[in-house]
Design brief:
- The chain has 318 residues and is of the alpha+beta class.
- It has three domains: 1-91, no CATH class; 93-180; 185-317, START domain (Alpha-D-Glucose-1,6-Bisphosphate, Chain A, domain 4, 2-Layer Sandwich), CATH 3.30.530.
- Helix content is 36%, strand content 20%.
- The chain contains nine helices and seven strands.
- The chain has helices at 22-25, 42-49, 82-92, 94-114, 121-130, 133-144, 154-172, 201-209, 297-317; strands at residues 188-197, 220-227, 230-235, 240-249, 253-259, 263-274, 277-288.
- It has a seven-stranded antiparallel sheet with strand order 1-7-6-5-4-3-2, covered by helices on one side.
- Helix 4 runs parallel beside helix 6 (133-144).
Length: 318
């Protein structure tokens, strides 16, 4: 991502261990903040907007809406230990924590060099990532204590290492499978955006939540208020969307569920005083109900979110 550069590439901004990621080890990714090769990332953009914080937990707003659902499924590395790893890094200090990661990386390199039959890379990477260092040292010690393995075909060496790692995981109740997105989640679009408005939180809050005055919305013909927690938006294309308010903390948080014949989803807005004005952080998820619409959901959602924020800015500044 352009302009996003960090000093420590082995431990990511969000708390994932790039040092143990197969994409990083294979040279396909430079690591979080490593320059060319990094993908676009909402969390990285947020860091830049906050002065280039090296780790999200250094921010007083952490965890923020960017982390909503972040750990519900794994990427190339497991997300289940992310909060525990952050806590350990803060307890030990970054240097000591990274020393442990380097030892783990050495163990992983040895497994891939001596015990990989071409089918174990993902398993070994996940096992080294999730198992405590003490367990990995024990597995390594057992493998080293069996010199006869060196004379065996790689398939037998791979099976021996896999069996020891799996036994260690079973003792600790740790699953060594990456947690895939639930069925249908690949059709869920997520859009996150942050904007600054040069006025009070009260002004932004009132403009957004006053459903009796929505003439500033360029995409709507009107809003029908059903009760304090339910309303219906009618857009200029003839679609009606039902909304249910799920959180309303004046001047701080507004959130709701939404649904129509084409989609269902959620929206959350966090309001904060910021440098004499207001920072608005929005997180929206939408799942398409119609199969043909699924490839277009992400782009549509981002356009709608930008339109909303642009309309809001015009209304506030007029």
């Amino acid at each position: 991502m352009k302009g996003f550069i960090r000093e420590e590439l082995r431990f990511s901004l969000c708390g994932l261990n790039c040092a143990l990621c197969s994409m990083h080890l294979g040279g396909y990714c430079p690591g979080c903040g490593g320059g060319e090769g990094n993908q676009s990332c909402a969390i990285a953009r947020c860091s830049l907007e906050h002065g280039g914080l090296q780790f999200c937990w250094d921010c007083p707003d952490y965890p923020c809406p960017n982390y909503r659902g972040f750990d519900e499924a794994d990427s190339f590395v497991p997300h289940s230990r992310r909060e525990q790893d952050i806590a350990r890094a803060r307890e030990l200090g970054l240097e000591a924590y990274l020393a442990e990661m380097e030892e783990k990386r050495s163990i992983l390199a040895a497994l891939l060099m001596d015990h990989n039959d071409g089918r174990r890379k993902s398993f070994f990477t996940t096992a080294v990532y999730l198992l405590p260092l003490e367990e990995l040292r024990s597995v390594t010690a057992v493998l080293v204590s069996r010199p006869e393995l060196a004379e065996q075909p790689v398939k037998e060496r791979a099976q021996a290492a896999t069996r020891l790692l799996q036994e260690a995981a079973d003792r600790l109740g740790i699953s060594l499978k990456l947690n895939k997105k639930p069925k249908g989640a690949e059709y869920m679009a997520v859009s996150k955006a942050t904007a600054f408005y040069p006025c009070s939180v009260e002004r932004v809050w009132h403009t957004m939540t006053d459903l009796t005055n929505t003439a500033w919305r360029s995409d709507l013909t009107g809003v029908e208020i059903l009760d304090d927690a339910h309303f219906v938006e009618h857009d200029k294309n003839g679609y009606s969307t039902n909304f249910t308010v799920t959180a309303c903390e004046p001047l701080r948080l507004w959130a709701f569920r939404m649904e129509n014949g084409n989609m269902s989803g959620t929206w959350e807005g966090v309001f904060e005083p910021w440098e004499g004005g207001t920072r608005l952080s929005c997180a929206e998820t939408v799942t398409a109900k119609r199969r043909w619409m699924r490839p277009f959901v992400s782009g549509y959602l981002k356009r709608q979110q930008k339109l909303y924020m642009d309309d809001l800015r015009r209304e506030i500044l007029k």
